[in-house]
Amino acid sequence: MRLEAGVQGDGRMRTGEKRQIYLIGFMGSGKSTVSRILSGRLKVPCVEMDEELERQAGKRITEIFREDGEACFRAMESRLLESLGESPPCVVSCGGGAVLREENVRAMKSGGVVVLLSASAATIYERVKNSRTRPVLNGHMNTEYIEALMREREPFYRAASDLTVETDEKTVEEIAGEIIAGVESYRDTQKAGKE
Ligand code: S3P
């Protein structure tokens, strides 16, 4: 029997089938906050990739970038995603650049449902403008740069996602609710297609 997790009507994960929920999206799209709410509502653990990588490395993301380089960070990210596909059901808050590697997208797609959180560049800017922990935006903290990088990454986010939830002007509770409903109907559709 395949291990896979689904979402029951009461919001709890169905065990017996192993399926993770991966939240992807640009920095500041709300992945970490929403994943914690989802984790509570679905009663499964949440893995915040950046936090987990910091724990593994024993240093902050900014230090990993500065001391070991971005390539090293991306390799750590890939290893973590690979292992998460095998772990018990959880909600995974992915780093904003995790979709850039094909192998990462493969790991996510085979591990579960991939949900894209989208937001406008203006919203993203408002959410990240005081952040000092995002090396990719170092020295580029402005809407124009964010907009250009979002445009460049857009095809990767679209290709990786099974469903998209718009986050502009929504509460985290609303976003979490939309994700739960979306994942449930996505899984039902997938299941019906197999029958
Ligand atoms: C990155 C996003 C960050 C973190 C790293 C690189 C990116 O995660 O993984 O700074 O390339 O978009 P968040 O999306 O959680 O900020």
Please give a quick description of this structure.
By secondary structure, this protein is an alpha/beta fold.
What does this entry look like structurally?
There is one protein chain. The protein is α/β, with parallel strands linked by helices and 195 residues long. The chain is 53% helix and 16% strand. It has eight helices and seven strands; from the N terminus they run βββαβαααβαβααβα. The chain has helices spanning 31-42, 49-57, 61-68, 70-84, 102-111, 121-128, 143-160, 172-194; strands at 4-7, 13-17, 20-24, 46-48, 91-93, 112-118, 163-166. α3 crosses α4. The longest helix is centred in the last third of the chain and has 23 residues, at 172-194. It starts with a strand and ends with a helix. The relative contact order is 0.19. Residues 1-16 have low confidence and may be disordered. Residues 27, 31, 50, 61, 95-97, 134-136 line the site of shikimate-3-phosphate (S3P).
For the sheet with most strands, the description reads: 5 strands, parallel
What is the distance, rounded to the nearest whole angstrom, between the alpha carbons of the first and last residues? Answer: 16 Å
Please state the CA-atom Rg, rounded to the nearest Å: 16 Å
Helicity level: 40-55%
Secondary structure category: alpha/beta
Strand content: 15-25%
- SSE order, one letter for each helix or strand: EEEHEHHHEHEHHEH
Unreliable parts: 1-16
Number of DSSP strands?
Answer: 7
Write out the distinct hetero groups bound to the structure: shikimate-3-phosphate
**Mean pLDDT, rounded to whole units?**
91
Our count of helices gives: 8
- List the strand order in the largest sheet: 4-5-3-6-7
Principal-axes shape call: globular
